UniProtKB/TrEMBL annotation:
Domain of life: Bacteria
Cited InterPro entries: Clavaminate_syn-like, TauD-like_sf, TauD/TfdA-like
Residue ranges of every copy of the TauD/TfdA-like domain listed in the record: 161-338
Short name of any one Pfam family annotated for the protein: TauD
Name listed for the protein in its UniProt record: Fe(II)/alpha-ketoglutarate-dependent arginine beta-hydroxylase
Gene3D superfamilies registered for this protein in UniProt: Clavaminate synthase-like
Family from the record: Belongs to the clavaminate synthase family.
Keywords from the UniProt entry: Iron, Metal-binding, Oxidoreductase
GO molecular function, one term: iron ion binding
UniProt binding sites for Fe cation: H169, E171
Length: 360
């Protein structure tokens, strides 16, 4: 691995922020970058978009041709040997002039995008830690989200928010088959918004606190991104049927622990904004609030630069985003997100058929 040979940063990014110690960093060297570009050259003419089961399958297969060093790094990350909840892969050359303006909304068409190469880059690398999927209740099952600031959602706990901190959560914490990993690729972040992450392994837990957090004393509701009003689009008609499972979950949420797994390998399932303690038990409330305080104290802050790819272990680490002031308009912050599961077979109960990559 070599450091970046050339300054890839646009004038708006004068300083490359230091990478926190709790984040595993992989810097692509010149030959690795060239090999990845060749792989994208081969795949791009075959697909007009990434939103298909055909693409997801080919992506998983060709990811095995990515440079060996990167594969080894992500293999060790995936199998928990790095003891880090977040990985940062640096070195993709984001060509600011080619990607065009930041979209004003998430509701954009997905065929023949200007950013097909960037989408393939993100999907290929993320496919090394799992199979790509989308949620039927979020953008009608699309794999790739545009995370851009939207004025009317500024105060919401959504990717489109900005005026409030996006508080600690596992992605789709409410769902039994939530993503094992999610990746975020930065296209633009002139506002220098800070992505925050923290792993359950980044600090010690008091045994009595951990004991309470391991008990089935919590319920988590779906976040607003899974509600019909947040999924209104010019591109599809929503049906009641696609939200029926979410609706039944909201009416009858399962009671779950916040921490699970053996003492030597703890996993977490939390959402600060949408999680409640059953019966409002004060000791349990204190235990979960204490956990959020520990996340605050031990958090890693990443100021993503264009081309930075962050992969978050959604079983080990929570994430969020500090509030920031968007440069609303064509150069506003622009992040893409994709979810993957380490075991697609276990999601079968939530899919319509074997090849479908959309979960209910
Ligand atoms: Fe999130």
């Amino acid at each position: 691995m070599l450091a970046l040979e050339e300054n890839t940063l646009a004038p708006h990014y004068p300083v490359e922020a230091p990478v926190p110690q709790t984040v595993a960093l992989y810097e692509l060297d010149r030959s690795e970058k060239a090999a990845i570009e060749r792989l994208i050259d081969m795949l791009a003419p075959r697909f007009s978009m990434v939103e298909s089961s055909d693409f997801a399958e080919e992506c998983a297969i060709h990811a095995q041709e990515l440079p060996i060093g990167l594969r080894r790094f992500l293999y060790h990350f995936k199998t928990l040997q790095l003891r880090k909840g977040t990985a940062l892969i640096r070195g993709y050359q984001m060509q600011d002039h080619r990607i065009g303006d930041t979209p004003s909304h998430w509701d954009m068409p997905w065929e023949n995008p200007k950013v097909l190469r960037e989408e393939i880059y993100q999907c290929l690398i993320t496919a090394l830690v799992g199979d790509i999927f989308g949620w039927v209740t979020q953008e009608n099952g699309r794999f790739m989200r545009h995370i851009v600031p939207i004025k009317k959602d500024a105060y919401e706990q959504l990717g489109a928010g900005s005026a409030v901190d996006l508080v600690w959560h596992n992605e789709e914490a409410f769902h039994e088959r939530r993503a094992t990993f999610l990746s975020l690729l930065c296209y633009r972040n002139e506002e220098q918004a800070r992505t925050i992450t923290c792993s359950i392994d980044d600090f010690e837990l008091d045994p009595s606190q951990e004991n309470l957090l391991r008990q089935k004393r919590f319920v988590i509701q779906p976040d607003k991104a899974h509600l019909p009003e947040q999924n209104d689009s010019q591109h599809w008609q929503l049906s009641d049927e696609q939200f029926s499972l979410i609706k039944s979950h909201m009416e009858n949420p399962p009671v779950i622990p916040a921490i699970y797994g053996p003492a030597w390998e703890r996993f977490i399932q939390v959402d600060q904004a949408f999680m409640e303690v059953v019966d409002n038990d004060p000791a349990t409330k204190a235990a979960i609030d204490g956990l959020y305080e520990k996340f605050d104290r031990h958090k890693a802050e990443i100021v993503m630069q264009p081309g930075d790819l962050v992969i978050i272990d959604n079983d080990k680490a929570v994430h969020g985003r500090s509030k920031y002031k968007p440069n609303y308009g064509p150069r506003q912050r622009w992040i893409r997100r994709v979810n993957v599961t380490a075991d697609i077979r276990k999601t079968q109960d939530y899919r319509a058929n074997t090849r479908s990559r959309q979960l209910y």
